[in-house]
Fold this sequence. Notes:
Layout: E1 8-11, H1 17-28, E2 32-37, H2 51-60, E3 64-69, H3 75-89, E4 94-97, H4 121-144, E5 148-154, H5 164-184, E6 190-196, H6 202-210, H7 229-239, E7 251-253, H8 254-261, H9 275-278
Amino acid sequence: MGVLEGKVAIVTGASRGIGKGIAIALAAEGATVYVTGRTVNDGDHDLPGTVGQTAAECTARGGKGVAVAVDHSDDEQVAALFDRVSADHGRLDILVNNAFALPDDLTDPGGFWEKPLSNWQMVDVGVRSNFVAAWHAAKIMVPQGSGLIVAISGYVGVSYTYGTIFGTCKSAVDRMARDMAVELKPHGVSSLSIWQGLTLTERAIRNLANIPGLEGRAATRPEDACTPEFPGRVIAAMASDPEIVKRSGGTFITAELAQEYGITDIDGRTIPSLRATRGSPIWEPV
């Protein structure tokens, strides 16, 4: 029996990438995982993966995957998701805010003024979407007196990576998680953010193969990378930690949490912390 048997989770933006890995890792510990994303059919996106495929893999790994097509820029679709979870289970134990509208030119060189204003979509789905999902989650978690809300962030919160808007978003995500924790802590609900380094998602693998010089950048060294399931393993450990509220409000480096909980990546590797070269989190637990 997994440590999350009987628990209900929502992982946003889980058609592929980090969200998919987290969803699968939570399901492998027995959780029922609602998998959200915009990709329903093969070919809807230029990268492989759909919400249905992720949900099926969650079920195959021992939990239960539930695919829900959600555009996290649409408040009505988000509200319907949480209404469904509440109707189905009457509870929600874990929300992982991972959905992020990455533009195709994210890793292209050039200043912010040389890229389209439409890149502001990262704020809409990446910051605002986190707040909307957490708002709905809190309405379920606060009455039950428990729950964990995790924001996926990165060293970019303090270290320039790729561009102005990207860094602004991740800094905002960290601060939002911290301030939500101040308000949620009296109700037994925890909120925190975790910092990922390079994660070998479908997009990252494609970029490393096709963008000259990318492997040599501080943020994209393959030897420092983890699989998409690695952060999910860490989140599963936190969600089953009876003293997780003591971490609420903090920003944590995933690799350091993994070492504290005795977690390795799926291949047995210990993922290094990049604190010394890429920066330290600002926010401590409240």
